[in-house]
Model the fold of this input.
Amino acid sequence: MNVRIGIIGASGRMGRAIANAAAAQDAVIAGGIDREGAVDGDYADAAALAAAADVLVDFSTPDALAETLAAARGAGTPIVIGTTGLQADHHAAIDAAAAEVAILQTANTSLGMNVLRRLVEQAARVLGTDWDIEIVEMHHRHKLDTPSGSALLLGASANLGRGAESAIALNRFDRMQEGPHAREEGGIYYASLRGGSVAGDHQVVFATDGERIELGHRAENRSIFAKGAVRAALWLAGKPAGRYTMADMLGF
Done:
């Protein structure tokens, strides 16, 4: 039987792309909602959609997360969360909900990006802190959060490879605000570019005296994120309660 996917944020760019990608991956769209209510199907709210779906996919906004998690918990429906810009309180709410339902949360559903995360982790583990790390990302002119959620994931992978106590322990975000200063050894620095219609470019530069390694990923269109989100939803459907990652799905 085909897996029924309910889309939170159905009228957004990602919501529409997921609906298009589902047909090619043995999935059907149970329906979708947005801030104003039903978009596809007769659902008054997230709770009604969760009851009708085998798995939810949420690419809406951080302020809608509480309602979405409550709906998933109420119906016992697994959920893939791809919303970016989440803060500590959002992650705490996800942790609490994961005690009751299966949740896969990620800032990037691209399979290629998640392979890049693994490569960055391995490189950071081998190279050590005498190799400087710079992360450069570019997105379309309408993207608000900086650095991008995907850039932060790459930084977290580098910190994990280095054995840092925290995923953000050595992150440094804004050279302009800090003013002129020497580069901190072991610091992971970010640069964010915004313009045009760029779907998402990320590059991680490892640099030391006399040599440099560059690892990168370029999203040529939004469909790669939709394909990955649908694949994650199909994998998550039927899983026991818990918090999962794209690495779990890929078998890393």
Summary: The chain has a mean pLDDT of 91. The radius of gyration is 19 Å.
